[in-house]
Amino acid sequence: MLPWNRVLRPLAALLLAAAVAVVPAATAQAASAPSSGWNNYSCKPSAAHPRPVVLVHGTFGNSIDNWLALAPYLTSRGYCVFSLDYGQLPGVPLFNGLGPIDKSAEQLQVFVDKVLSATGAAKADLVGHSQGGMMPRYYLKFLGGAAKVNALVGIAPDNHGTTLNGLTHLLPYFPGAEDLLSSATPGLADQVSGSAFLTKLNAGGDTVPGVHYTVIATKYDEVVTPYGSQFLSGPDVHNVLLQNLCALDLSEHVAIGILDRIAYHEVANALDPAHATATTCASVFS
């Protein structure tokens, strides 16, 4: 029997990318758009969208590559959008998110302060992919971020770590492997299920008061496994499984963050719940 998921997944990605290209140009050039790009520090939030949006890339990502689709999607809708680089390792260009995650959260803290100062806003909204959807929770919980953030939207976040389909369970069988992983790429080691970092992060509950949490996951995620570990528990949490919105969406871990307009529609709903509209397969054209 043919592995249809493997056959159809790339096709779905191509269809989503094509949909991005055919969305009416008028949308991309909406009068409410604050600029032709993001990281525009002269951008002032509007009454309709009073908070700047800070995009937080994932492991091995950076402030540009991770957001070539989502940043324009949001700026065209009138948001002031900013993105940062974090978790850099000496001698490793372009690929970020590899440093200790608690230190990456400190970089996010500094960046959010910079954005709030430039825009004059009291609070920001955060949208992150993979590690970028989980790392900000450290900022919210331990670095005072809850007072400066209205909402955190995580796209395929590894909130409770990942087993990488069980591969990380092999580490104890290779003497020195865990130490090497920690010393070479501490940002990866911190994301392994049961790590000291994640134990501290999730102790006492997943959320902090005053912040609205949204998690958008795909059941085809092959990186953060099992995908249900991405979901949060708490009084102000909205957990979303992409396939419950569109069963035809076959996006996996990378595609859901870098090109999936169905997921993006749900991001927009989370940023502006008062004007949310139903997310369906047709949202790829919205």
Q: Could you explain how this protein is built, in words?
A:
- This protein is an alpha/beta fold.
- 34% of the residues lie in helices and 11% in strands.
- It contains twelve helices and six strands.
- The chain has helices at residues 4-22, 25-28, 70-75, 101-119, 131-134, 136-142, 177-184, 186-189, 196-202, 242-245, 255-258, 261-271, and strands spanning 53-56, 81-84, 124-129, 149-155, 212-217, 237-241.
- The chain has a six-stranded parallel β-sheet with strand order 2-1-3-4-5-6, sandwiched between helices.
- Strand 1 (53-56), helix 3 (70-75) and strand 2 form a beta-alpha-beta unit.
- Helix 4 (101-119) crosses helix 6 (136-142).
- The radius of gyration is 18 Å and the shape is globular.
- Mean pLDDT is 87; it is low at 1-35.
Using the CA coordinates, give the radius of gyration. 18 Å
Shape: globular
Strand proportion:
5-15%
Q: Please, what is the average pLDDT?
A: 87
- Could you describe the largest sheet, including whether it forms a barrel? 6 strands, parallel
Alpha-carbon distance between the two ends: 36 Å
* Annotation, overall tally of beta strands: 6
The class by helix and strand makeup works out as alpha/beta
